[in-house]
Amino acid sequence: MTQVFKFGGASIQDAAAIRRLGELLARFRVRPLVVVVSAMGKTTNALEALLAAARDGEADDYRDRLESLRREHLATVEALFGANAGPVAERVEALITELDRRHRRHAGRERPFHYDQTVCFGELLSTTIVSAWLNEVGMATEWLDARELVATDDCHQAANVDWAATAERVRGLDSDDGRIRVTQGFVGGTAEGVSTTLGREGSDFSAAILAHCLDAEEVTIWKDVPGLFNADPRRFDNAVQLERISYDEAIELAWHGAKVIHPKTLRPLQRKAIPLTVRSFQDLEAPPSTIGRDTRFDTRTPSLMLREAQTLLEIRPRDFAFMDEPRQHDILGRLVEAGLHAGLIDSGAMRLSLCLDGHPERLEPLVASLCDDFAVERHDNLALLTVRHGNEALLSALSSGRDSLAERRNADTAQRLFPGDQCQGTWHIPY
What we know:
- The chain has helices at 15-26, 43-55, 59-81, 86-106, 111-136, 163-169, 202-214, 247-255, 263-271, 325-338, 360-373, 392-399, and strands at 3-7, 33-37, 141-143, 180-184, 187-189, 195-197, 218-223, 228-229, 241-242, 244-246, 276-280, 289-292, 303-317, 342-348, 351-357, 374-388, 406-409, 413-419.
- By secondary structure, the protein is an alpha/beta fold.
- The protein folds into 2 domains: 3-223, Acetylglutamate kinase-like (Carbamate kinase, 3-Layer(aba) Sandwich), CATH 3.40.1160.10; 304-422, VC0802-like.
- Helix 1 (15-26) crosses helix 3, helix 2 (43-55) runs antiparallel to helix 5 (111-136) and helix 3 (59-81) packs parallel to helix 5.
- The longest helix is centred in the N-terminal third of the chain and has 26 residues, at 111-136.
């Protein structure tokens, strides 16, 4: 059965990293194998800055950024191939020329459309180099254009997958002719051949899409960490690895802000019971983490998510009426339109409380809209702690010395909101 590997930007950020990728793949002789690759390093950020320069009419800035992008990729090609760099360099040059041409052609189009025609080149460039390198070191590959594989609608920057059309397009990729199929993450295409992108965590999602349509045996996402943890190791000094959790548990953790796999990646895998494994490309001997159907391990270890820079809105009807279903429907509809996620929702007879990520460009228009029709009390610079499968002693210890401003809990999950200045520094989990 087919295996799907996904490599992010950190795993191919330069020539040395691409060499390590080749060495890694040489150790895995599984076939059929589909390899999904992101853009190199911070290339997507560079392309977004290039797009801004193009749309702002900053001609000199645009040319400088385009040339920097060209030089960086050609330097990687030179470092990898040396005297044999010519053919690969020509393909890279051709892609940069096409990127420039598209900017000129689409300069007057709406930004989401222009964005997708620009940012997709990060993955096109990286996979061109990676595929050529694998061939160079003796691994036969077939480079595939994800815009011709992943069929989507024309909702640019957040395209929706046409699953039936995609399944038809990828038919045959699971044939075992010894070649590794290399394609791009994050990228799709409409029926008319227009480039689209899949939105947040799009490269992981690409791997899941292909796995679903190919009835793959497994998806492996290669990261610079050994697996999934029960808390952010940068904030919790004794976080532990979760070696096995279920799809549902991983989705719950992601919903509450954990840096795990995005729910949209997990859902198509869950539908066909395809396990997802997270492994370290830096330490192949480190035990991985696997997400699958087995729920036996979900409650063994408490998981903690700390979301900072939160804003609490306490919303009340001005006429002292009840916060009934029509009013809640109105408020939550505005939240959807603003593109904001409420990490905590609590309601009373005359109150609805929302804890939101503090994105000023989205939050401020929402608050202004709500203030037109409701009495709104606002609290900024807060931190939301979510604990899954914790007990009262754990919650009490974590809350000690902190003022709880709001709380919500059910059988599996407890949430408490604290002033942000009381949540600085490193936390310790009292298991």
